[in-house]
Amino acid sequence: MQIFIDSADAAELKALAETGLVDGVTTNPSLVAKAGRDFFETLREICAAVPGPISAEVVAQDAKTMIAEGLKLRTVAENIVVKVPLTREGLIACKTLEDDGHPCNVTLCFSAVQALLAAKAGATFISPFLGRLDDGGQDGMELIREIRAIYDNYAYPTQILAASIRTGAHVRDAAIAGADCATIPPAVFKALYKHHLTDSGLEAFMKDWKATGQKIL
Ligand code: E4P
To answer: Structure pTM?
Structure first.
């Protein structure tokens, strides 16, 4: 499964990318506002730090302006993916941009039929929002399973990008359900490699090794 980081904090993304485990990045207008910096400058820094797909979201509501915004975003770097909302206008923009060779991530997906339409529009990525469905008392992971089944039935190449991830369990379950990618907040990513038995086991190994008085280097 590809691991994307859900953030617009260029400095933090650069540090996380040093692990060699980050395949891409997703941003959204709220994350850009939180970062508090110039959008285009931030995007340039992120694209330079992470070679994979970097989603940058349009803010227009009509397809024509979405397409114009998307084309401008695509001038920032080759790895920019245009993020469009799952609305009628967003799907039209997606179809037009994809037909012209510009990859799109269709965001704010909350149902399997929405995902079906995004695939028909030729989207490179579909972003079902797991956490927000869970927050509302629904089962976000069931949506991933439904989309996986539909995409497999018709061999749609659109990649399922599990979004609105809140926990490591979300990452695990999305991987089991067959999501192609997960976009993960930095804090959740950092928690993925942690386990208290790893820490205590390592501590015991180091204590025993020290007692041998030996060195490897
Ligand atoms: C996806 O691309 C979105 O940026 C993101 O996952 C939204 O997550 P949230 O529900 O935590 O805001």
So the answer is: 0.96
